[in-house]
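Late entry, written up from scratch paper. The run itself happened at the end of the previous shift, but nothing got recorded in the book at the time, so transcribing now.
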Amino acid sequence: MSIDTPDSLIPYDEIVQEALRAVVGRVLGSIVNGGSTLPGAHHFYITFKTGAPGVSIPPHLRERFPDEMTIVLQNKFWDLEVTAQGFSVSLTFNQVPAKLQIPFAAITAFVDPAVDFGLQFQAAVDELAPEAHEDAENDGTEPDGDGDGDGSNVVSIDFGRKK
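Output as recorded:
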């Protein structure tokens, strides 16, 4: 009998992430069904990847938040609509109204500080399309002396898995 846990052929991590994102949909759906007002002191901080597929935000917000953005649903929001895939909502940013469409798959955090409730989601890297960018200025062929000599100084850590 081996002490090492074998790799699962069932994607439990993905299934759990999808189920937890459904919690966000159910909570937001209950707000829509309740007349689009939040009960009591409840309010939500929702963080999402702005470059994720299906995210629709105005260009000036995408420029300001090229990777990730947090919105607050509390007092001034309207036109909240929830579907099985995501939600849309209208908010103001510096007194300028904007409509946002956010798929649940793009959400990385959901927090209701009124009751100390929060969910963190792993960003599914393969779901995110890489954004076009200019070449970095440090992409030369000469090593600068940092790293271990192979030109790599990237460290990858997976906090979400226990083995």
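The helical segments are 12-33, 59-64.
(Scratch paper discarded after transcription.)
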